[in-house]
Amino acid sequence: MSMNKETVLDKNTFLVSETDVKGIIRFANEDFCK
Questions:
Q1: DSSP per-residue string spanning 1-34
Q2: Which residues lie closer than 8 Å to 18 by C-beta, 6 or more apart?
Q3: ∠ CA 7-9-28 to the nearest 5 degrees?
Q4: What is the CB neighbour count within 10 angstroms for residue 15?
Q5: How confident is the model at residue 1, as a pLDDT?
Q6: Phi and psi dihedrals of 8, rounded to 5?
Q7: CA 5 to chain centre
Q8: Contact present, 13 and 30 (Cβ < 8 Å)
Q9: Tell me, what's the pLDDT at 5?
Q10: How far apart are CA 15 and CA 34, in angstroms?
Q11: pLDDT of residue 4
């Protein structure tokens, strides 16, 4: 799924996510969810 939306992040923002073997996101930190 593509949203075609660009988001500018603060230089101190870290995106963290974890997926299972099928590529399904199982964890995402708060910054990732924004």
A1: ----------TT----EEE-TT--EEEE-HHHH-
A2: 25, 26, 27, 28
A3: 85
A4: 11
A5: 61
A6: -85, 125
A7: 13
A8: no
A9: 87
A10: 10
A11: 87
Q: Which two tokens stand for residue 11?
A: 């230089």
Backbone torsion region of residue 14, taken as left when φ is above 0, otherwise alpha when ψ lies between -120 and 50, otherwise beta: beta
Structure tokens at 13: 């923002």
Tokens of 19: 């997926």
Q: What is the full per-residue pLDDT of the chain (34 aa) written as tens digits?
A: 667 888 889 999 999 999 999 999 999 999 998 8
Calpha distance 25→19 (Å, rounded): 4
16 DSSP assignment: -
CB atoms < 10 A from the CB of 26, how many?
Answer: 8
> Which residues does 13 contact at the CB level (< 8 Å), separation at least 6?
31
